[in-house]
Amino acid sequence: MTAKRDFARLSSLTVDELKSILAEAHALKADRARGRAALHGKAVAIVMEKASTRTRISFEVGVAELGGIPVVVTTQGSQMGRGEPVRDTARVLAGYCQAIVFRTTTTARFEEMCIAKVPVINALTDDAHPVQLLADLMTVEEVFRARGELLDWSKLRCAFIGDGSSNMARSWIEAARILGFTLALATPEGFDPPAHEVIEAGNHVQLTRNPREAMTGSRIVNTDVWTSMGQEDETARRLQAFAGYTVTGELLEHAESDAVVLHCLPAHRGEEIESAVMEGPKSRIFDQAENRLHSQKALLTFLLA
Ligand code: CP
Ligand code: NVA
């Protein structure tokens, strides 16, 4: 029997595995019925300790489309909300389900779930959002495919404007390191990603305080909320700190003329992104949201089929 594989972060996969999951994601998007028996009879627990629209629904639909049985578990509706330890929940769920998708707070809590004898997929922690990155990278590939342009990751420059310490920025740093593109990360002082992650990414990450500088030469422009789930008490301080880091039409003019805009959603219009940019011709935000479904189906197929 082969050992179970968890998907804790993007680097839980080799580069070749990542690329083949992305290739399968495109194939699944082209043919929605593809792989419809891949998870035949397999139950997947989708455990949410934080709010979710896209992740929960795309996993739920994705598991069903692959012939599996999605089981959504929320904190409030389960004994987890009354303090049952994650390590107990992990072993119980593994007795019923063939995989666990887990959205939680700390990496330590996620790792506790990984004692389950079935694959555990990170559906967002405070430190990482790797399933979102699968959809983001798929969307980048899709943009290049639609233009008939060969994507050479090593020549690509992407900008991330906003909270450099967020799960999204940190997962984009990981993607830059793995695929070899350049991530120009504009973030205010006090919101840098952990130093070791920047060092590990070497020259694939360029940290700046100047959003215009990050935009220059970038063909992909990313942002995320300034106040992530669990940080609500810091909202006022963050609104102040991130002033000037809004992705506006004016800022976008500093990027390459063919640049596209990504946002994992939910968005706070008028804070990290201008409404006109979200709704504008450069936005691929809603394709990106749809790609959650296809890329996660590819991941589930890889881990379980
Ligand atoms: N982008 C994302 O993970 O959205 P949800 O919080 O709605 O799942
Ligand atoms: N950084 C955001 C991402 C939401 C999908 C958060 O953690 O709330």
Task: Provide an overview of this structure.
The chain is globular, with a radius of gyration of 19 Å. The model has no long low-confidence stretch (mean pLDDT 98). It contains twelve helices and nine strands. It is of the alpha/beta class. Helices cover 41% and strands 14% of the residues. Bound molecules: phosphoric acid mono(formamide)ester and norvaline. The site of phosphoric acid mono(formamide)ester has 8 residues, from helix 2.
Features:
2 domains, five-stranded parallel beta sheet, 14% strand, 12 helices, Rossmann fold, alpha/beta, four-stranded parallel beta sheet, 305 residues, binds norvaline, binds phosphoric acid mono(formamide)ester
Side-by-side strand order of the widest sheet: 7-6-5-8-9
Strand content: 5-15%
Task: Please tell me the CATH architecture of the largest domain by its name.
Answer: 3-Layer(aba) Sandwich
Task: State the secondary-structure class.
Answer: alpha/beta
Stated plainly, the CATH topology of the largest domain is called Rossmann fold
- Distinct small molecules bound, one entry per kind: phosphoric acid mono(formamide)ester, norvaline
| Rough outline | globular
| Name of the top-level CATH class of the largest domain | Alpha Beta
**Secondary structure tally: strands:** 9
Major β-sheet annotation: 5 strands, parallel
